[in-house]
Amino acid sequence: MEPDVAEPEVTNRRRALLGIYLNDHLGGATGGLELVRRAARAHSGTAGGEPLRQLASEIAADRRTLLTVMRTLGVPVRSYKVAAGWAVEKVGRLKPNGRLRQRSPLSSVLELESLRVGIEGKKACWRVLHQLAQTDRTLDAAQFEDLITRAERQADTVEDLRMKAAADAFG
Q1: Residue 105: its pLDDT value, please?
Q2: Which domain holds residue 51?
């Protein structure tokens, strides 16, 4: 019986797809980290400032964890995707918000909604990696369970802040 030469091909293709997937999430994590840092600065001295500062710290740690996972899996960082994530966040600042020279209450609502979407995306990535950890011994499934739980808590925190911002903006 001939050895199955297609198996290494399939494995290589899957690894390439995983690399694209993780780099896409790294780009998103970069943009999300920039966004939450900006939101924390904008809300400094308010009730939302401290939760956003803590969230920025956790999101930075999550991004470092993603980089560690990528190294563990031998996935090279694609700098252009990191730069794109950074740039998308900067371009997002240019959206009309009803005011030209100062921050609008709408800015907080939209930023927090974007942050919430990013956290849900991160949680989805952790779930994929948790599933992969079932067959890849280099990954720690328990670590991803903890990260999923933390992302759920982060989403709840952002949702509370978002609803307060919406009440402030819209009455």
Answers
A1: 83
A2: 6-170
pTM: 0.85
- Amino acid present at 56: A
Q: Which of 77, 81, 78 is nearest to 69 (CA)?
A: 77
121: exposed, middle or buried (Cβ count in 10 Å: 0-12, 13-18, 19+)? middle
- Phi, psi dihedral angles at 5 (to 5 degrees): -75, -15
Residue 147 contacts residue 65 (beta carbons within 8 Å): yes
Asked if the structure places residue 1 within a domain, the reply is no
The parts of the chain modelled with pLDDT lower than 70 are 1-10, 80-82, 84-102
- Kindly report the CATH number assigned to the domain that includes residue 122: 1.20.1260
Q: Domain for residue 158, yes or no?
A: yes
Label residue 119 exposed, middle or buried (CB < 10 Å: 0-12, 13-18, 19+): buried
Give the pLDDT score at 15: 87
- Residue from 43, 34, 170 nearest 115 by CA: 34
Q: What is the pLDDT of residue 93?
A: 56
One-letter amino acid at 148 equals I
Domain count across the chain: 1
